[in-house]
Amino acid sequence: MAEESFVQLRVEDQTAILSLNRPKQLNALNRNVLSELGMQIAMLSGRKDIRTVILRGEGKAFAAGADIAEMQELSAQQAEQFARMGQRVFTALESLAQPTIALVHGFALGGGMELSMACDVRIAAEGTQFGQPEVQLGVVPGFGGSQRLPRIVGAGRAMHLLLSGERIDAQTALAYGLVTEVVPGAELLDAGLRYASVLHKLGPVALQYVKRAVYDGAELDLARGQALEANLFGLTFATKDQREGMRAFLEKRAAQFRGE
Ligand code: CAA
């Protein structure tokens, strides 16, 4: 019998839905899960028929973090390699040309919260608990949390969450700007597909360049960031989508973007 995969892929309305599938361990991220996730991401990269990517978890949690049972006996060197592995996979996720949406429910703790933060947008189910509890295990985040969290919610809030290890609920996450929307659990997938359908009406090239402007720009000083923005702005004018978008506005009709 074929082994069941830890990351399942299905495609619906041009959206790839990646589901973490290790529900008995609350989708704890071990090497196998990370490696399968990395392979799925690599396969989605460059697929023009996939316009958005949704990441979600099977069972009662999005993901309760890196696998503590697998980590506990790691040497310092092995732990660093494990962190680098997770970071590589999450960076590949962030680097996808397509917009990515994390649908978060139950728990998004440690590596689970870090995974959600490697997506472009997060939508949470009511009752979801977010947190970076690594300090409670005597360690620090290893999958990018200490870097992405302050970029998303600001240094003050990030420092509070990272130092205390305290969990916040979905409403607080909304107030922090960590999630864009909180919906009843039963409506989470629909909310994600609805968000995706809004993006599908837009030009994929412009969306890809927005991602580059934001992520690459975050590494630059203001002058260089603005130079990057001007460059990307210019590149959009080399697309048919720019002609179509502006013409459609002036002709008072909906634009038909083709990603060209
Ligand atoms: N690693 C391994 N196993 C985990 C896990 C994790 N991160 N989180 C949950 N599990 C397992 C539990 O051990 C349990 O397994 P058994 O049934 O075999 O005992 C199963 O999943 C169900 O979990 P609980 O019985 O604990 O469920 P609960 O509803 O009582 O509690 C919870 C849920 C509050 C999320 C609790 O499971 C918990 O605190 N999990 C750990 C959260 C955590 O500390 N995450 C950070 C990990 S470190 C990290 O992520 C480092 C990094 O940045 C790379």
UniProtKB/TrEMBL annotation:
SUPFAM superfamilies: ClpP/crotonase (SSF52096)
One Pfam family cited in the UniProt record for this chain: ECH_1
Keyword terms, alphabetized: Lyase
InterPro entries: ClpP/crotonase-like_dom_sf, Enoyl-CoA_hyd/isom_CS, Enoyl-CoA_hydra/iso, Enoyl-CoA_hydra_C
Family per similarity comment: Belongs to the enoyl-CoA hydratase/isomerase family.
Record protein name field: Enoyl-CoA hydratase-related protein
Organism: Alicyclobacillus fastidiosus
